[in-house]
Write a sequence for this structure.
């Protein structure tokens, strides 16, 4: 049996989103975050479909239709949610002998930090109500989609801070985790980063905020050039780890340092985790979070180097980081063969 976790840049049927609503932490930002989601849906629907989960399907469907989104490009599923971070509670799709199979990992609110009882049921509800085509296997392992990166050829990139968190799978050792990733995701090797973090990050250093696998043995990663910044030493150590990594063929990776946006803070003075690494790859394009920052244009240009031939589209994500996430965090790709 051959198991493979496709790379994000492989062909997709669509993107899964969970729409913000008044019972989420977005309640005081609903109008602003709704505009961000609308821009995101419009951009995605140029290239593929969108599956939206929301407890208020009629209202969200009307919002999208009134905004001119073609109805054939989106589907709305009426289910309750705790929050909107589908990257971490949505299904991970593997190919088993070339056939899509969806894995519903346990989601416990990033190590028991937040309520997740409703989010943890979304994948099963979508399958039970025929919004998803493949077989769905419920997995006992706690694992979030934002914590693993795949090159589609058996390499998984992750961080020890997240996968070895004592509130996720405390009964498992590093070797146990590697064996689980091999059996479930088809990992032939696991590359661990021991360093790297972002202030304000609730995920325990998800890899999709720090370093991203890209085509042609490329890694785009967060780089902090300012020695006065609190991130400087840790991200420099992470960079040294990336320099030391080797491809499956034994060659160094092509490393593309992403720009460093100016610090952003919430109303309480807490720093927010603004990162350009949290981009989303869709068919023919890459959607990149922007922050109305002088570094935005340089970030778009750097990601264009990582994905030649794809359209690079900036999405204003200033509102998303106010809840300590960004563009990749609120999306989950649905590979080819997963949507009806």
């Amino acid at each position: 049996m051959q198991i493979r976790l496709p790379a994000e840049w492989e062909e997709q049927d669509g993107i899964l989103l969970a729409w913000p609503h008044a019972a989420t932490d977005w309640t005081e930002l609903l109008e602003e975050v709704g505009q961000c989601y609308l821009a995101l849906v419009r951009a995605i629907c140029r290239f593929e479909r969108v599956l939206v989960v929301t407890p208020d399907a009629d209202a969200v469907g009307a919002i999208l239709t009134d905004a001119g989104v073609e109805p054939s490009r989106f589907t709305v599923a009426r289910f309750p949610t705790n929050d909107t971070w589908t990257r971490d509670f949505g299904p991970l799709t593997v190919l088993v002998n070339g056939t899509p199979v969806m894995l519903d990992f346990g989601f416990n609110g990033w190590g028991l930090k937040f309520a997740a009882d409703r989010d943890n049921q979304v994948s099963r509800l979508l399958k039970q109500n025929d919004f998803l085509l493949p077989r769905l296997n419920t997995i006992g392992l706690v694992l979030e989609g934002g914590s693993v990166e795949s090159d589609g050829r058996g390499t998984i990139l992750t961080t020890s801070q997240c996968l070895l968190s004592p509130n996720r799978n405390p009964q498992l050792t590093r070797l146990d985790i590697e064996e689980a990733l091999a059996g479930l995701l088809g990992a032939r090797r696991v590359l661990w980063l021991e360093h790297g973090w972002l202030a304000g990050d609730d995920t325990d250093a998800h890899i999709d905020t720090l370093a991203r696998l890209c085509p042609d043995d490329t890694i785009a990663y967060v780089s902090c050039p300012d020695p006065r910044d609190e991130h400087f030493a840790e991200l420099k150590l992470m960079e040294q780890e990336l320099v030391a990594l080797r491809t499956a063929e034994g060659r160094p990776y092509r490393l593309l340092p992403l720009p460093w946006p100016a610090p952003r803070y919430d109303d309480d003075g807490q720093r927010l985790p603004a990162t350009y690494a949290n981009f989303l790859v869709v068919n023919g394009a890459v959607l990149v979070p922007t922050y109305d920052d002088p570094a935005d244009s340089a970030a778009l240009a750097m990601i264009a180097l990582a994905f030649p031939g794809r359209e690079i589209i900036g999405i204003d994500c200033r509102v998303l980081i106010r809840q300590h996430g960004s563009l990749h965090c609120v999306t989950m790709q649905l590979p080819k063969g997963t949507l009806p």
Summary: Residues 3-335 form a domain with the L-arginine/glycine Amidinotransferase; Chain A fold (CATH 3.75.10.10). The longest strand covers residues 99-106. The radius of gyration is 19 Å. The chain has one domain: 3-335.
